[in-house]
């Protein structure tokens, strides 16, 4: 009893593993500390799948309220990844019931950090860069475009691309090198045109 009183004063310093053990023993202070640490993560996951702030908040609360009663068959070594998986599964079960569309990952990631405004700006900038890159890739010669897409977007090796396209290794390397050079020229000329 005395140990519990002393420990509760230092619960913020407890590890996730210690808090998880206390949680399944019914310790509400441990639940509160885990909520403080991971509510933003669970909310982000819920937003990713549900695309509705109020529904996401309700599900987040339901997930945390149900934690002490969870039937856990294995030892939880990494609470963060475990709660992420639990949250994802809860969302998917709810979506199966409601048959809702899922949200994009970028929307969910905005809510997982405190600086949502800056995150949104970075996400929009990145999306703009991807769009420019896609347009530039579309302007390449077919062999260059195909080789670039297979190498960079599908992570295929030179050898696999050569087998897939029935071209020599030397040709594939040439297409990729010339394609990269052409992409750089296209992107730089587009930048100059924008200014």
At the first level of CATH, the class of the largest domain is: Mainly Alpha
The gross shape turns out to be elongated
Number of helices: 10
Stretches where pLDDT is under 50 for at least 5 consecutive residues are none
State the order of secondary-structure elements, H for helix, E for strand.
Answer: HHHHHHHHHH
Topology:
Elements: H1 2-9, H2 16-24, H3 28-50, H4 53-66, H5 79-98, H6 105-110, H7 116-138, H8 142-153, H9 158-165, H10 169-194
Helix pairs in contact: 2-3, 3-4, 3-5, 7-10, 8-10, 9-10
Detailed description of the structure:
This protein folds into 2 domains: 2-107, RNA polymerase sigma factor, region 2, helix turn helix motif (Rna Polymerase Sigma Factor, Chain: A); 116-194, Orthogonal Bundle (Arc Repressor Mutant, subunit A). The protein has 10 helices and no strands. Helix 3 runs antiparallel to helix 4 (53-66), helix 8 (142-153) crosses helix 10 and helix 9 (158-165) crosses helix 10 (169-194). By secondary structure, the chain is mainly alpha-helical.
List keywords for this structure.
195 residues, Rna Polymerase Sigma Factor, Chain: A, mainly alpha, Arc Repressor Mutant, subunit A, single chain
Short description:
The protein is mainly α and 195 residues long.
């Amino acid at each position: 009893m005395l140990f519990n009183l002393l420990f509760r004063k230092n619960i913020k310093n407890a590890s996730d593993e210690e808090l998880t053990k206390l949680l399944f023993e019914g310790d509400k202070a441990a639940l509160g500390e885990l909520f403080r640490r991971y509510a933003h993560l669970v909310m982000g996951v819920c937003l990713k799948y549900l695309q509705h702030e109020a529904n996401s908040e309700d599900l987040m609360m339901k997930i945390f309220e149900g934690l002490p009663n969870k039937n856990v068959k294995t030892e939880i070594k990494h609470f963060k990844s475990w709660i992420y998986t639990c949250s994802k599964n809860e969302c998917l079960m709810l979506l199966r019931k409601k048959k809702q569309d899922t949200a994009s990952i970028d929307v969910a990631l905005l809510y997982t950090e405190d600086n949502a405004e800056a995150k949104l700006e970075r996400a929009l900038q990145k999306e703009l860069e991807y769009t420019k890159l896609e347009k530039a890739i579309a302007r390449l010669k077919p062999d260059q475009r195909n080789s670039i897409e297979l190498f960079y977007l599908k992570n295929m090796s030179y050898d696999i691309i050569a087998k897939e396209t029935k071209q020599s290794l030397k040709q594939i390397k040439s297409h990729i090198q010339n394609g990269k050079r052409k992409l750089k020229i296209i992107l730089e000329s587009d930048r100059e045109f924008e200014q």
